[in-house]
Amino acid sequence: MWTREEDEIILLSVAQIGPRWIEIANRLPGRTDHAARNRYHRLQRFSQPAGEGMLMLPSGFPPPVDANGVAIAVDYSQYS
Fold first, then answer.
1. What domain range is 12 assigned to?
2. Could you state, in chain order, the average pLDDT of each consecutive group of 10 residues for the chain (80 residues)?
3. What is d(CA 69, CA 56) in angstroms, rounded to the nearest whole number?
4. What is the pLDDT of residue 46?
5. Any idea what the CATH number is for the domain that residue 34 is in?
6. What is the number of domains present in the chain?
7. pLDDT computed for residue 61 by the predictor
């Protein structure tokens, strides 16, 4: 099972360095580059406008964006 912390690492990493899955997987002990990529794409499918239960990024971090450069948010309430 993926943790919220792992999801945050994936989203922040993609926002910072792009889809460099091997580098991102190195930040996630026990996860492969394929697992990180698949999780990111799954999070993208569940993204929607910001609302209650959404991932809030720490200040100073750029928001994760989709292919069109539009900021995304992840609704964690569906995983509870």
1. 4-79
2. 92 93 96 96 73 53 64 58
3. 18
4. 73
5. 1.10.10
6. 1
7. 57
d(Cα 61, Cα 79) in Å, to the nearest integer?
A: 24
The single-letter code of the amino acid at 12 is: L
Instruction: Please state, in angstroms and rounded to a whole number, the distance separating the CA atoms of residues 3 and 75.
Output: 13
Query: Which residue bears the tokens 């990024």?
Result: 57
- Cα gap 8→26, rounded to integer Å: 14
User: Quick one: pLDDT at residue 18?
Assistant: 92
Tokens of 7: 């999801």
> Which token pair is 41?
């794409």
User: Any residues with CB less than 8 A from the CB of 34 and at least 6 apart, and which?
Assistant: 21
Within 10 Å of residue 46's Cβ, how many Cβ atoms?
13
